[in-house]
Amino acid sequence: xxxxxxxxxxxxxxxxxxxxxxxxxxxxxxxxxxxxxxxxxxxxxxxxxxxxxxxxxxxxxxxxxxxxxxxxxxxxxxxxxxxxxxxxxxxxxxxxxxxxxxxxxxxxxxxxxxxxxxxxxxxxxxxxxxxxxxxxxxxxxxxxxxxxxxxxxxxxxxxxxxxxxxxxxxxxxxxxxxxxxxxxxxxxxxxxxxxxxxxxxxxxxxxxxxxxxxxxxxxxxxxxxxxxxxxxxxxxxxxxxxxxxxxxxxxxxxxxxxxxxxxxxxxxxxxxxxxxxxxxxxxxxxxxxxxxxxxxxxxxxxxxxxxxxxxxxxxxxxxxxxxxxxxxxxxxxxxxxxxxxxxxxxxxxxxxxxxxxxxxxxxx
Length: 364
What we know:
By secondary structure, this protein is an alpha+beta fold. The protein folds into two domains: about 1-220, Rossmann fold, CATH 3.40.50; about 225-355, CATH 2.40.50.100. The protein is about 25% helix and about 35% strand. The protein contains nine helices and 20 strands. The protein has helices spanning about 40-45, 90-100, 105-115, 135-145, 165-180, 190-195, 215-220, 225-230, 325-330, and strands at about 1-10, 15-25, 30, 55-60, 60-65, 75, 150-155, 185-190, 200-205, 210-215, 235-240, 245-250, 255, 270-275, 280, 290-305, 310-315, 320-325, 340-350, 355. The strands form four sheets. A six-stranded mixed sheet has the order 6-7-8-3-9-10, sandwiched between helices. Strands 13-12-11-14-20 form a five-stranded antiparallel sheet, with no helix packed on it. The protein has a five-stranded antiparallel sheet with strand order 15-19-16-17-18. The longest helix is centred in the middle third of the chain and has 18 residues, at about 165-180.
């Protein structure tokens, strides 16, 4: 569907640095990255608002690198929706069709069809200032979808709405993708949004794509610490690869490299063991399970938020671990979760990975 080949763009001091991506037909692709990393610049380059100094953009096999935006047949929904404030919802949604010279009857049919699909047929006479955040977002989606674009580009589409509306719109985006079968490129800095929606994920930093794959692939095998942190890994324990390949983990002792797939390259001596919070378990009987390590820790901090309990733990040498339990899991533990309590901790082997300590990409 969409192929980017070595895209390079320079805007002042900022650069997109050799981005290559392939988005397949019907795929929901998410670009995940922090603010200022170049996600919007890349989306606007695809849309035709910036021209690459090098590289090609192919859509459905056609080179569109130098085509103007109006000839690319892409639907774009921005963070601020970009609705015309003086026009009604009907006129906003129908605007593109009128520009194309579509007949009035066809416009009416198309607008009624897409606004009915998005459940906003009852607000067609209102102007944007009389709409809720969710209604404005649906109106912006309707304006893009009514043109039946080859692909939908979404620029942080849920960042301007409250939490409840955001949750509802996430479900709506999944429905749109499922029922219309449209290819979507969605950029966000929100991890839960990315994991919920993405078929495939691409992580960006400083104008470059660092890693891509399914959300499960990227989060379980991050290529470096930045990717690991961005995709939710909470624990990074210093370790060293010894002469015979055995791994010595600080505060935990030697670990068999066969636990890791792939095992660290012996040329990469200084590493971090990455441990997601879900792989840290608190249980008196932990050593009967397939754990990388079991040992005593002390609870140092407890925070209860939104039905979950975030727990900070300290090993004997001061190394910290973090995990999050549900209230139900906490209630089932045979000890009290409070600071100062010594407990036994186990780290599941299946959850661990490694990244180089210098930040370079690992062999994963």
